Structure formats: C-alpha cells, structure tokens
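the three lines:
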Amino acid sequence: MRTSGRPSSKVIALLVAGGVSCLATLVDSTVRRDTDLASRQSRAALVASLGLTDLSLFTEARYTRHPAMADLHSAFQDHPAAWDHFPTAAWVGPPQWGNQGE
Amino acid sequence: MNRTIERQRYLIDFTIASLARRRGRNLGLFAVYTLLVFVLASASLLGYGLRKEARTVLAASPEILVQHLLAGRHDLIPESHLAALRDIRGIAAAEGRLWGYYYDAGMRANYTLMVPSDRTIEPGTAIIGSAIARLRNLGEGDAVHFLSPKAKMFRFGIAGTLPSESELVAADVVLVSEADFRAFFGFPAGMVTDIAVSVRNPKEVATVSAKISRLIVDARVVTRDDILRSYESLFDWRQGMITVLLAGAVLAFVILAWDKAAGLSAEERREIGILKAIGWETSDVIAVKFWEGGLVSLGAFLVAYTLAYLHVFHFGGALFAPALKGWATLYPDFRMVPEISGQQIATIFFLTVVPYTLATIVPVWRAAIIDPDTVMR
Amino acid sequence: MGGSSGAGEMLFHPTVMALLLWSFAAVGATAAAAAFAWTIIREWNPASGSARQLELERRTYLIATLMVAVLVGEAVSLLLFVFNADSMAVMFVGAMCAVGTLNASPYGFPALVAKIVVFFLAVVWLAFNRADNHGWDYPLIRPKYRLLLAIFPVVAGSAALQLAYFADLRADVLVSCCSKLFVPEQKGVAAHASGLPAMPSLAAFYVATAACVAMGWGMRRRPGLAVAYSPLAAAAFVVAMAAVVSVLSTYVYEQPHHHCPFCILKPEYGYVGYALYVPLFLGTGLGLAVWPINRYRAIPSLAEAVPPMVARMAAVSAGSFLVLIAVGTAIVAVSNLRYL
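prediction for all of em together
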C-alpha cells in the first residue's frame, strides 16, 4: 500500500487484528467441538442411564441441587441465604433467627 | 466510491491524531469500556453455555416423573402405584427411583445418594461422583464412613468413580445398592422417592400425564419438557438479573462517556474553531467525533469479547465461580462446550455501544457547532 | 420448578431488556425530534439572518444525527426481534419457531408488523436526509421534517406494542405453531397465502422481481421510471412474501405442506431465510425511497446530487432483487422437492 505509514492504516490493522481474534474464537470453538461434544454425549448417556433430572451445579440446598424436582415453594427452607431461584430472594435478606451458633 | 473511502480515511487519520493528543483520557475510557463489555459478555456466554448444556444433556432425562405431594411437600410414593401406572395405555415402562440427600457434616457438603437402575452395586460398596472423590481425596479401593441420619456408622468401599466429564450432572452423586440405601436412611419398605415413566409415543406425553394425574390425584407430574423449560427460564432469568444489576454500571459508564465528550478543553475548542475557520463543515466535525467514539467502541468491543471468550471457555469462568458456588463446598469442575450465539453478541452490543453512542450525540453536536470567531478571538 | 409463571416474567430476558431499552430511547429521541420538526415547519426561513434561524440551522445537525442513529438502530432491532422470537420458542409449550413465540400474545404479530413499517419509513427518511445533506441551502428541510412528524407516532406505537407484547408473554400458555397457522384450511392472511397454488405463485415471484431488476436497469437511461419503480418494489415485496409462504418455504423444508416463513431462519436450514429476507427488505426499502427522492431532482441545489443518488439507490435495489432471484433459484434447484 502506498500510504502504509498513515495512522489510519495502523489503526485499521489493529482493528482487523481484533476482528481476527474474535473470529479465532469461532475457530477455537470448532476445533474443540468434537472432543467437547463427545464429553457432552457421555453426560447425556449418564443422564439417560441413571435417570438424572438436574445439573449438579448448585449443591447448597436440595431445591437448588434439583430445581426441577423441588417443592413448589421452597425459598429459604434449607438454610438462610441459600441460593434461591425466586425473584424475591435477590432482594429480601436472610432471616435473622437462623444459624446464629456458627 | 473511492473518493468517499479516501475522505473517510483522512478523517480517521485526523481522528487518530486527535485521540493520541489526549492519550491518557482516551485510554481510560477504553479500559472502562472494555471492562464493562467483558463482564457483560462473560455473564452472557456463561449463561448461554449452561443453558445450552442443560437443554441438550437433560433432553435425556426421564419423560415423566411422578411425585407424591403431602401438605405441599414432596413425599415418598408407594410402590403399589407402579402396577396401576403400567396399566395405563401408552406407558412403556414405570420404575420407582430411590434417591435422597445426605449432608456430610465433616465436609459440610451435600451429597445425592442414589440407587442406579442401570447397574448393580455390591452391598457395602459405592460409586462416587468425581467432585466427591476430589473433595475427600478418594480413589478406587479406598473406603468412606458415612454417619447415617439414624446415627449409625456405615462403611462403603469405593468401587469406582464416575467419569470426570460427567461432573456437570453428577458431581455429588453417590451410587449405592438398594439394601444399603434403605438401611442407611431407614427408608420405609414398599416406598420409593418418585416414579419415572417412559411413554411409547413421545407425542402422547401430555395425554399420559393427564391420565396419571387422574389416577393418582395427590401426585405432581413433571414432564421432561417442564424440566427443560424450568432450566431455560432459570438461566435466562438469572442472566437477566445480572444484567439489571449491571445496569447501574452501564449507566455510570454512560455518564462517564457523556462527561468525556462534553468536557471539551479550551485547547479542543480552539482546535475545532480553527478547523471550521479553514473550511470544515459542521458535518465533518461530527464525523470526526463519531469516528472517535466508533474506534474506541469497536476496539473495546472486540478486545472485551475475545477476553470474555477466553475467560469462560478456557478458564472456566473463574471470576464468576464464587458467585455460582454460593455456600456449597462441592462444586463441579467442568469444561464448557463453547457455544457462541449471534443474538447474545447483538444483545451486549445493544446494551453498551448503543447507549454510549446516544449519550455522546448531544456533546458531539455541541462541539461541532462551535463558532470559529468565538474561540479565535 | 424454577421461574414461576405470571405476566411480565419475560421482561427480565436479556435480549428483551435490550430491545425495550432501545425502544424507549428511540421514542424519547423521536419525540424530541418531532417537537423540533414542528418548530422547523412553522419557523424555518432561510432568507432570514436572525439569531433564531441560525439556532434552528445548528439544531438541525443535532436532530439529523440523532435520527440517523435512532433509525439505524431500529433496523437492527427488527433483526434482533425476529432472532429473539425464534430462540425464545423453546420456552413455550407447543412452539417450535418464531411463530409460536409471536402467537403467544395477541400483540406479537402487530408488534412485528409495526417494526417492519418503522424499518421502511426509516429507510425512506434516511434517504431524504442524505439527499438534503447534498444541497447547501437545506432544500428538503420541510418535507424531511414533515415525514419525521409522521414517523413519530409509528415509532411510539411500535414501542408500545412491543412493550405490551413482552409484558403479556407467559411461559405456561399453550401456543399453536406454524403447522397450525400456515395451513390453507385456516382463516386469515397467513392461511390465505399458504393456500396459493405453488407454481403460479413461483411464476409471480419471478415476474415481479425480474420486473424490478429490468426497471432498475432501465432507469439508467430513463430516470422518469422512478414514478413506477417504488410502487413496483412494494408490489414485489408482497408477491415475494406470498411466494415465500406458499412455495419457497416448502422447497426449503422439502415438504409440500410446511409453509412457515419463520422456520427458514433456523440454523437447521442454514439460516437461508436471512439470505432471502435481507436482500428483499433492502431492495424494497431503497426501492420505496427512489420515487420520493427523484421528485426533487429539479431543485437547483440538488440538480447535481440527486440524479446520481437516485440512480445508485435504484441500482442497489435492483441488485438486491437480483440476489433475491438467485437465492430463490438456488433454493428451488437444491431442493429435492419437485412440483412439476
């Protein structure tokens, strides 16, 4: 390019580099996909064979361990300030009476 | 066409020179911008990845689950219902499931004890989820002692661990034999935790579950679709709350952007005045100012998105893990499958770039209409 | 179960929040612009050198910049709206694509239609603005701001419909999907379009789009054709949409009885719907703007700028229709479905 010394060329090159790095995430995700999907398959197989219903992401309380299986209204029932999926839990503080001994 | 491109390139040249003259200020803006998009994008990628995971993995969960409700709480269900259920036309199989929670006081962790239907476990042995194996440093051939709720000590030889890639669904699972399970919890004979039903024709799930509700009136029937939908809205809603919480940050950022754009130094005012005196038009000045904002936005967006991708899919969302963990001591160590959705990216774009652009329009215009004679006098 | 149900529960969906936030900003900005438009129409007087006139001239740069940002954003938000409707379908019982999501509330389809109308108005207004910028004496200032006054209620109405729609959405309602709506046995526009005979409808698609391409080509020599081009583009839009519903979609699904214009947007079908709709909307939008802009070619300060601009718009519009023909033909050629 005849105007390669111009600042705009440098900045455009930087932006292109940023764009390329974003595209690289796509490439990375496709490269990983086969192994990752195989491990997902094995998860799905375990879910099917054991008859699992939930992700074991939140093991704090029984209604967070199995949100799909929990009682219909179970806010705070396991311990105060437990992670909860009810909207109010984000705003209502934990009750004062529990767990004072710890 | 070429002329327009050349013209814009000269404007960019000028913009960059002007950005470089105020390097500290613009780098600060760039850093804050990048941080904001990074947090939003990480939350969004993590939420979407988990949602997609739940959607695909839990698609293999039981088609219908029948729970017994007593006084609004989940209660044990008698095995005697099994025969009646199997008589319903359209039901292929009905099976009682035995599972429950065990709180390991020593480790302060909750385990899910379960009797598997797909394998037989020797009494006195257990297969454990790999998060438990890690937490308690256990391997095949070791043994654990669990204090049962009836205050009796049980010894389980570890017959194996579940594969580590299954941690996202079975981190805390302990598989034991039925005899051990019933003895450990003092679980009444003839009762099961709930009943899993499979249906001959997937299209009949709704009809079959209606029949089940009529047959067992105090039952709660949960279909696979219910499970999938509840996960869908769970993550969606969580992500929405995070976005609401971050709205304050976005707002602060918008105010910052407004302030940066509005607070023109005397030097900048003189600069614009001179430009107009030598023949620049208002629209040219506006174009330069938009290039300033656009270059910063675009650059910050590209960098932040790449960083967020690395954070979530290569470093397991390390910065968010404490929030996801809560008070739990058992936490699955999982590698997320990279799931990228154009919609998520477009949403983040709308939540950051757009308010930024709107906030700078008025200050940009104020700058652009500066009269040459007022600043050069 | 998580996320108990009730009206308004969908408002916390991140994309929904982004769309609503955007529409509020757009209404605010358009309201300010409309108020200014009123002043301009009453007080604008280029002959005067008063401070008031100078102030108005300066302010028109602000409003124009604001509206460019708003209208470009509205176009993007149409895309996001459809994308979101498609991806939210998993949350509704019985929904398989965007139709189910849009059908989950009576405001769904009106909101979509309003957004499409805003899109076309936006394209026309942006064209006015561009033409106006070419003249040194603000030649189109009055028509431009009159159009803006007309756009404001549409933008506000579209925002209101969208808010009503998202607030009304509930995850527990049973919705009917495209397999119930786009069938000839039902009543309504959708059903009517699905019932159109396949081959004549495909022929009409080719005739209408080819006519646009031909006329767009002809305008290089005879710019007067602009009068006919805009109505033709509008007609081609209707014909093309009808053809998508009645026949092109069936080629994509390779099922003669599946007539959904939204499922073709899904990844399963390679997002081919976007390849159809983007050129269609672009071609129609620019086509609609051709005639109104061309009317001002006689204005002295625009005599130099408007004719090439109109020619470019016509060329891009005709080119888009050409792309549309190519995509449509490719769909028919690749498909295993055969009518003849």
